[in-house]
Amino acid sequence: MPTRIPTGWRVCIDYRKLNTVTRKDHFPLPFLDQILERVAGHEYYCFLDGYSGYNQIEIAPEDQEKTTFTCPFGTFAYRRMPFGLCNAPATFQRCMLSIFSDMVERFLEVFMDDFSVFGDSFQDCLSNLTK
């Protein structure tokens, strides 16, 4: 297990076998050039990172056993979505677009766990951040 100094242990699981038998979610991720085109031309930008974003999405109880792993400390299963699952990016993108549907393309862009808020003035950008 690799360690990360500020937060302690970081668990990395090899889900390649699970991913090969998983039905793929083909929810489209946005094209970065289209996001940049919509953001361009605004005076103020704020870029945010959805800290541990995937871990905010619950895994259905009947699917948690599929994430089981064993390490020197015991056997565990995730209750929330870890990185490494093939459908994690699509699932997270779908959730974020659903949550922020009234804001996306108006003053907010979402690319997985990265968010861009923009406005034509500082006050406008700040106001958009509070929404």
From TrEMBL:
Residues 7-126 form the Reverse transcriptase domain. Keywords: Nucleotidyltransferase, RNA-directed DNA polymerase, Transferase. Signal peptide: none annotated. GO terms for molecular function: RNA-directed DNA polymerase activity. The keyword Transferase applies. Pfam families: RVT_1. This is RNA-directed DNA polymerase. It comes from Corallococcus interemptor. The lineage of its organism: Bacteria, Pseudomonadati, Myxococcota, Myxococcia, Myxococcales.
